Amino acid sequence: MSSATDPDAPARPDRRRDILDAALACFLEQGIEPTTIEAIRERCGASVGSIYHHFGSKDGILAALCLRALDEQSASMARATAGAPTPRDGVRGLVLGYLDWVQTDPIRARFLFQARPLVARGPRAADLAERARQRNAALLAWFEPHRASGALRDLPCEIYPSLVIGPAQSYSRAWLAGGEMAPPAVYREVLADAAWRAVAAPDACG
Amino acid sequence: MSSATDPDAPARPDRRRDILDAALACFLEQGIEPTTIEAIRERCGASVGSIYHHFGSKDGILAALCLRALDEQSASMARATAGAPTPRDGVRGLVLGYLDWVQTDPIRARFLFQARPLVARGPRAADLAERARQRNAALLAWFEPHRASGALRDLPCEIYPSLVIGPAQSYSRAWLAGGEMAPPAVYREVLADAAWRAVAAPDACG
Amino acid sequence: MSSATDPDAPARPDRRRDILDAALACFLEQGIEPTTIEAIRERCGASVGSIYHHFGSKDGILAALCLRALDEQSASMARATAGAPTPRDGVRGLVLGYLDWVQTDPIRARFLFQARPLVARGPRAADLAERARQRNAALLAWFEPHRASGALRDLPCEIYPSLVIGPAQSYSRAWLAGGEMAPPAVYREVLADAAWRAVAAPDACG
Amino acid sequence: MSSATDPDAPARPDRRRDILDAALACFLEQGIEPTTIEAIRERCGASVGSIYHHFGSKDGILAALCLRALDEQSASMARATAGAPTPRDGVRGLVLGYLDWVQTDPIRARFLFQARPLVARGPRAADLAERARQRNAALLAWFEPHRASGALRDLPCEIYPSLVIGPAQSYSRAWLAGGEMAPPAVYREVLADAAWRAVAAPDACG
DNA sequence: AATGAATGAGCCTTCATTCAT
DNA sequence: GATGAATGAAGGCTCATTCAT
Question: For residues A3 and D153, which has the higher predicted lDDT (pLDDT)?
Fold first, then answer.
């Protein structure tokens, strides 16, 4: 009597996942604010009550999706940076990891651009802030020794993220907005180089 | 019967302006979506009907504010670039003009970050798109000759804006979000340099 | 162009009154909690928005009706007591005034029994408490000189109201509950006498 | 197989009682209508299903508590009247028994004031009515012979209860409402005397 | 130009109750 | 007896917008 894959079961609800999937689709198709619980319900087949049983509120769904996306983004960047042999590889890795995540999961990337400001102002703002704080701390901790060693320009910590990720973020935002632009992968090297040039110590600008 | 200054008039203080001022304040305090016409009405003392007489809809108010802010931003960038003697001065000017506008009018800068995505999806999207198109065309027109002359890296047009403005935009966004960060002016040079390094031809990386 | 009585006007809305009348009827027919805004709307022909425009909330309607009924009750008691030549007439007047109001407007009397506890726990509790405080102060101010003069038993103020109104209230509640009981008017004298006996100084028990 | 004390049972602490206790606490803290099954569940640790298994519905819980309280009240009054040597002692006993119960169990007394009107309109109204009928019949049966003997005023049965219990009820209600009033025990004699004076035959007004 | 009462579609959320395990 | 996920009807309330004055 394995409970793992019982084909007779009523479609293995796993309600939580169904609801999140439906919500994400609705949010992207109609926008976050305009999406109604009813629309989500209709799409995933759950009942209104079930949705509230699992997530408590519309904001709860939004936060769950948002935090998840943020984690995946962070993970991609962490993977691309882990074990970087040189500061240059590390900085480039951050950009490449970011761009790869955007291109791999453009759905969630676009969603995250939309959802983040909303969550940041909503009732789950604290959760998001905490997650962002951790991520930022890790990032700055990575930069610090390299700056101390002279491999990076001697700049205040707070400006590094913008110099490194700013261009990639800007381009990703524009691409996801739906113009006729080339996908981020096309500019992987350009954006990674720009990041390195922006923060590399002057004599390392090679 | 001058309509300019009639001391007998019941303090007819340019309704349009009052309404826009009140709306901007509400949008920033409460957020754009949550702001109701009633809230704007209460703040500026006008009647609901008067607001609709002047702007037609909530989106009308939003678009008026948004386009105005965008124009001011463009103007600041145009001023800082106009008559730039070298490509380097031009690129740096774009960044400096952008940052100066943000620092001079942080209220409207913050508002623009919030309003733009909404207007871009709202009924006045066309107006915004047209304005953005013009601005972008001017920008690219400025880049083109320098690229052709070899002063700039040979990159597709679409990537330039992100390389140049991306970091400044990223930092401005973070600063306006209200953390404990130093004002953009502190990083004027850093950000302007980064922009130039990102787009300068390799042998001009000085 | 008299605006006073234009027979062609669309039934002289006076929305506020219409809404209150409809609400009272619904509250009595279905109970207060079970009455929905929709039911009130349907009965008075106003729109949901109009109801909220005038009263702000369901509690607002309830409070308006409740306070109004309480005022009328107080007025009836005040009338019956005003200019009472003797303490006995005054005490009896309170009871008679109360009973007359109940019998004259049993609709509102029954409503008040139901509404008061709800309002006392709702968001408008303060309004009700203030009104009750004033009324009680007036009542006690009336009793005090008579007690001081020895016409009334020497009892703490707080017990007077229960001794005087308690029986009348108890009977009114039972009658309004809809049994087969005789109307309060039948027991006017009995209840008024009981009130006087309960508070009269021992040697005045005649 | 004693069902009384099974030491192996997982602290089976009489679910029914736990649920009723939790419900009573919730009803008093939050009000009856606002109390949700979920709130009761959280407080007593039982599951929703278990609550329904035992009581069938929210009204079932309410009725159980209400009827129980009413029985205790009746019992207290019956005890205080039982074996009363004179009509005066009997009448006074009703009042004293009522007040003693209120003071002994103010929690349930307050609850009963709130719950009774609700139960009287709810699906268990019949149970309550039957219980009230029995109680009233007993009361009137007690009064009847004394009235016939001339010890009590010659009044219709229906007015006796209000004359006797009205003041005590009125004061109890006010005290339980939470003001700064003295506890009912302070006025035991006053209220008992008032009851007797109200129903005693004229020549017995001593 | 101004006013503000009126409109009404629509939304988020609640909650008593059921039932498969 | 116990559990708790699931149900879904229903309700209070919001708010952009209209329009008669």
Answer: D153
Helices (H), chain D: 15-30, 37-44, 48-55, 58-81, 87-104, 106-121, 125-148, 160-176, 188-199
**Nearest nt (C1') to D35 (CA)?**
E15
Average pLDDT for chain A: 90
- Please determine, for residue C12, whether its predicted confidence score (pLDDT) is greater than 80: no
The pLDDT of residue B202 is 83
Output the average pLDDT for chain C.
90
Return the number of other C-beta atoms located less than 10 Å from residue A105's C-beta: 16
Contact A16, A52 (CB under 8 A): no
Collect the ranges in chain D with pLDDT lower than 50: 1-11, 205-206
Measure A46 CA to F5 C1' (Å). 11
Please give the structure tokens belonging to residue D21. 């206790």
Please state the three-class secondary structure of D71-99 as a single string. Answer: HHHHHHHHHHHCCCCCHHHHHHHHHHHHH
Q: How far is D152 from chain C (nearest CA, A)?
A: 13
pLDDT tens digits for range D33-79: 999 999 999 999 999 999 999 999 999 999 999 999 999 999 999 99
| Measured distance CA(B116)–CA(B107) in Å, rounded | 14
Give yes or no for CB of A137 within 7 Å of strand E. Answer: no
Query: How distant, in Å, are the alpha carbons of B3, B15, B152, D19, D98 from that of D76?
Result: 85, 73, 99, 25, 7
- Asked if the C-beta of D181 comes within 8 angstroms of chain C's C-beta atoms, the answer is yes
Q: Any CB–CB contact under 8 A between A47 and chain B?
A: no
- Phi and psi at A65, nearest 5°, equal -65, -40
Look at residue B125 and tell me whether its pLDDT is greater than 50.
Answer: yes
pLDDT above 90 covers what percent of chain C?
A: 81
Cβ contact, residue pair C162, D205, below 8 Å: no
With 60 as the cut, is the pLDDT of residue B82 above it?
yes
Residue B51 sits at the chain A interface (C-beta within 8 Å): no
Predicted local confidence at residue B10, as pLDDT: 46
CB-strand contact B34/F, under 7 Å:
yes
Interface contact flag, C190 D163, Cβ < 8 Å: yes
Q: What pLDDT is stored for residue C36 in this prediction? A: 96
Contacts of A182 in chain B (CB under 8 A): 156, 158
* Residues of chain D found within 8 Å of residue C156, distances taken between Cβ atoms: 182
- Which nucleotide in the DNA or RNA is closest to residue B15, CA to C1'? E1
Domains of chain A in sequence order? 8-56 (1.10.10.60), 62-204 (1.10.357.10)
> Hey, of D170, D171, D199, which one would you mutate to test binding to chain C, going by the most C CBs within 10 A of its CB?
D170
Please give the residue that has the higher pLDDT: either C129 or B140: C129
pLDDT value at C112 more than 50: yes
Over residues A93-110, the pLDDT tens digits come to 999 999 999 999 999 999
Measure, in angstroms, how far nucleotide F20 C1' is from residue C50 CA.
16
D165 has a chain C CB within 8 A of its CB: yes
What are the tokens at B77? 């960038």
Q: Which nucleotide lies nearest residue C53, CA to C1'? A: E5
Chain B: residue whose CA lies nearest to A200: B194
Instruction: Give the model's pLDDT for residue A142.
Output: 86
